[in-house]
Model the fold of this input.
Amino acid sequence: MADAYILGIESSCDETAAAVVRSGEHILSNVVASQIATHQPYGGVVPELASREHLRAILPVVRQALAEANQTYNSIDAIAVTQGPGLAGALMVGISYAKALAFALEKPLIAVNHLEGHIHAVLLEERQKGNHELQFPLLALVVSGGHTHLYLASQNNEGWTYQNIGHTRDDAAGEAFDKVAKLLGLGYPGGPIIDRLAPHGDATAVKFPPAQLKHRDRRDRRGPKEIATEVPRFDFSYSGIKTAVLRYIEVHAMAHSIEIRRQALAKIQRPKFENYLANCDRQTLDLVASFQRAMIEDLVGKTLAAARSLDAAMLFVTGGVAANNELRKTFERDGAQEGLPVFFPSRPLSTDNAAMIAAAAFPKFLAKDFAAMDFSAEASLALR
Ligand code: KG4
Ligand code: ZN
Done:
């Protein structure tokens, strides 16, 4: 079969991205326009601003992706776009643009679930390295700013299907990193800066109690019979640890020093890591390191418990938080102890990008699973 060149478009949150991927396994271009500078003053993503920035960026980003791939609007075989989950207004920008392109060029349009994209980031890069071997059961942890999900992934002739076996009951793991960074006056997004500050603190200094899930998930509609016969669930919860950090700040009267840090960092136009480090005292560094350690122990512990229980043969860890250094090291170390091979995307493909969308679209392209022109954005699209 001839190669297929798929143009991927991603606009679900605060990155406008476009990429060209050949046959699901070769990245020809991967352009990401980040909106961090726009949202930074607000300490988080402002949905209206995100939509406006996507509108501004989408055309130049797509043009750049085509040019870098040595492709034209006419030479590509299909257009893939993120349908959800994500911010409705932000998704709409990518979808409207992709529809217009597909209509004008008379090319197939493929709707992709953002979470499936994160999983295919791993598949794409492994294939690019020449590794085509897959083993099942395949467990995937998608851990980002909006999601903390565990899936069992299966492949058949028609493509991929997914069974959700765990999710967060409240905050996503990346959201906890972002909220804790905000509480400590470290700005947005929190994950990358906490990742770099943590090695400078003592991760054993502050003890956080493990997250307790005492109740059944209220969104779980299964009856007792189904629960007895189906695979067990491995849910997460991260709002408690954020509250514990807040309590620690109050009990140790850290508010004043946090405010001084916030103001000092706000005066620097593009603070560098050294600026963050110079503005953190020992107590803050210890708190940051202990918080990160507690998050990672919980994520790794629960995921490996799920892998043991389901006898997983492979584990994928993907999404923005998968860029975290200590998380990667811990998964690799603990996975190796259990004889479980663990795969991550490279760091640029861990966070949001469009190469993963183009890669996830390839099996759908082969199966001619095309989207109708009237499909719409789905802010809480589930992955199945
Ligand atoms: O996948 P992503 O780019 O967007 C979503 O789909 O949410 O993930 C963004 C999230 C943010 O919460 C960010 O703080 C977190 O990933 N993140 C990290 C790191 N890099 C990004 N968290 C921990 N350590 C990192 N190095
Ligand atoms: Zn994402």
Residues 282-310 form the longest helix (29 residues). The chain has a mean pLDDT of 95. The longest strand covers residues 26-34.
